[in-house]
Amino acid sequence: MRPNALGRTIAGLAAVAGLAAGTVATAGTSFAAPAATVPTAQTATAAQAAALAATQNFGLTTAEAKNVQEFLADYWGYTGSIDGQLGTNSWKAFQRCLARYWGYTGDIDGDPGPNTIKALQRLLKADYGYTGDIDGIAGSGTRAAFKRFAA
Q1: How far apart are alpha carbons 6 and 100 in whole angstroms?
Q2: CA-CA distance, 8 to 102, in Å (whole number)?
Q3: Taking the mean position of all CA atoms in its chain, how far away is CA 78?
Q4: Per-residue pLDDT tens for 1-11?
Q5: Cα distance between residue 133 and residue 33, in whole Å
Q6: DSSP state of 29
Q7: What is the per-residue pLDDT for 96?
Q8: How much is the average pLDDT of 11-26?
Q9: Which of 1, 3, 117, 148 is the most buried (most CB within 10 A)?
Q10: Which has the closest alpha carbon to 144: 125, 136, 134, 135?
């Protein structure tokens, strides 16, 4: 999975901001406005890519992910928007559930890494038809069972 997605996201945004600042700082006076337009678009694109990178739906549709977020809001302290994007706050809430009932012992950090997936697989194996190994890999069997959970 993504062992340090937040760190990579921040580093990527910092690099884009640095490039944008360098481009504007070295531009001549007559070229300052056009140069600022390009980095602004790049920054927006990088921010959008970072938001997508921080989202991990594991094959769920937006509607299915909204169902998961509603469950998390009802029972596990999720207070974010019900937008169908399982981001850091959704996964933090899910990790609280997994820690309570399904053997998750990692940090509540919102990163759905291998330990989070192992706990999710235990939940899915118990009640949602997952028949694979508890291996921390969100393969096709995990994704299919997660869809059943979200239905």
Answers
A1: 24
A2: 29
A3: 14
A4: 334 443 444 44
A5: 56
A6: G
A7: 97
A8: 42
A9: 117
A10: 125
Query: What span, in angstroms and rounded, lies between the C-alpha atoms of 47 and 75?
Result: 31
Contact status, residue 76 vs residue 62, Cβ threshold 8 Å = no
pTM for the model stands at 0.66
Contact 68, 149 (CB under 8 A): yes
Bigger pLDDT: 75 or 10?
Answer: 75
**Using CA atoms, how far apart are residues 92 and 109, in angstroms rounded to an integer?**
6
Q: Each residue of 87-123: pLDDT tens digit? A: 999 999 999 999 999 999 999 999 999 999 999 999 9
**What one-letter code names the amino acid at 150?**
A
Pick the closest to residue 61 from 129, 140, 146, 131 (CA basis). Answer: 146
Buried b (16+ CB within 10 A) or exposed e, 13-38: eeebeeebeebbeeeeeeeeeebeee
Tokens of 27: 């531009």
3-state secondary structure of 115: helix
Residue carrying structure tokens 């759905």: 112
Identify the pLDDT of residue 29: 45
42 pLDDT band, cuts 50/70/90, is low
